[in-house]
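ok so i was messing around last nite and threw this chain in just to see what happens. nothing serious, just curious
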Amino acid sequence: MKIQDVLVPIDFSINSMRAVEFAVALVGETGEVCLLHVIDAEFVTRLAEEGFSDPEAALARLRDKAEAKMAEAVAALPEPRPQMESMIVVGKPFTEILRVAADLDFPMIVLGMQGRRLGDIEDLLFGSTAEKVLRAARIPVVCVPPRWAPPAD
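result:
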């Protein structure tokens, strides 16, 4: 089975960028990788409730920052690379990842795991976006571990 089209949710952390590298290696030059960044709607609401910013201004700043980081992430990938698409949505991260994957009929999701906890896999994933996506996805989900490195040429 050759995977040609992969959804990669990213939060711009090192681990999510490893997932991008993994997806690029997985699909090769002829595939397509779609990067998805979800602006957490609850975070925007909390900013407004705490008086830091009105929701529209906060959302605009977060979107602008995400667009700039997305462009940097794509530009940092070596050529030749697969076709790269990107999108930014607002909502609950795991819900939006699953919605986009289903709506756009992706055959696979590749995402980075956070390496904050030490212990077994449940400790590593429990309560995380990755864990929620793994439990609810109806397509294969590849979780790229924090220590994964792209193959040497």
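not much to say yet. The chain has one domain: 5-144.
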